[in-house]
Write a structure and sequence with these properties.
Number of strands: 14
Strand order of the largest sheet: 8-9-11-12-13-2-3-4-5-6-7-14
Helix content: under 10%
Structural class: mainly beta
Shape: globular
Number of helices: 2
Length: 271
């Protein structure tokens, strides 16, 4: 989910122009809008691509199966997600899908967007200067929110980290105890909650189709980290899950006003 830049750039925060091809990345969370500041052009000082991991189909299937099982907590307990893109955009989100409570805060270049969800209620506040939109807490009408602005407690749409889309994009993977390494096709990650990678005018760099990744499971088999290192002109990105079972207390903002008509066309990752 994201805000469209008033100039027509999708996702007023889809992060980091990192190559001359202008490959960009965006990160979103369950009730989270994205700011879209560029993180700067590639300098030529980026690390070399990490070695790729060779694995046959059976080895990859076993490793991805562990990752899928490692996200079962999303439907069962509360948790926290911390996300980072290139140290330019940071996100903190808390979700309790069982009791339908969630909040999220995204920060970039000193600007902040906050969202809160309570049952079917969605609240939003931003200090971005959006045309026709103020800075007070607003209530959103879910029926008017674009489909790619995913604010939901429904299974498959309720992970602020968007781990399922990352797992679906894995090309090869190998498990070594709780550590899983491999390659991921960043062109297949697609849009939605969590990390998003978007092509520039010349498309993705060739290396984006086999970018390295690493992931870690905790002693209970839960996914606790998923890291994508910078390589081939793509920025680094990291998800971390923690605070399993910690209560998520979300307070209804006092004095929230109905979101103006001008807000809805500026929501979403499309366009």
């Amino acid at each position: 989910m994201a805000l469209k830049d008033p100039r027509g750039l999708a996702g007023a925060a889809y992060a980091a122009v990192v190559t001359r091809r202008a490959a960009v990345a965006a990160i979103s969370a369950v009730t989270l809008l994205l700011l879209g500041w560029a993180a700067g052009a590639r300098t030529g000082d980026e690390p070399d691509p990490a070695p790729t991991v060779g694995a046959d189909a059976a080895t990859t299937a076993r490793a991805t199966g562990l990752l899928r099982s490692g996200t079962a907590f999303i439907e069962r307990t509360s948790f926290r997600v911390d996300a980072d893109i290139a140290s330019q955009i940071t996100t903190v989100a808390h979700a309790d899908n069982v009791h339908k409570r969630a909040d999220a805060t995204i920060s970039a270049s000193g600007r902040v967007i906050e969202t809160r969800m309570i049952d079917n209620e969605v609240y939003l506040r931003t200090d971005l200067d959006l045309p026709g939109v103020g800075h007070e807490w607003m209530t959103l009408d879910p029926a008017r929110v674009p489909s790619d602005f995913a604010v939901s407690f429904a299974p498959g749409r309720n992970d602020p980290g968007g781990s399922a889309r990352l797992i679906d994009a894995i090309v090869t993977a190998r498990a070594d105890g709780p550590h899983i390494t491999g390659t991921i096709d960043l062109t297949r990650v697609g849009a939605g909650n969590g990390i998003n990678f978007r092509p520039g005018p010349d498309g993705f760099p060739d290396g984006a189709r086999s970018n390295a990744f690493s992931a870690t499971l905790d002693a209970d088999g839960r996914l606790v980290s998923f890291s994508i290192p910078a390589a081939s002109g793509m920025p680094n990105a990291t998800l971390r899950y923690s605070d399993f079972g910690t209560p998520v207390d979300v307070v209804r903002p006092q004095g929230a006003v109905a979101a103006p008509d001008a807000l809805y066309p500026q929501l979403g990752l499309g366009g």
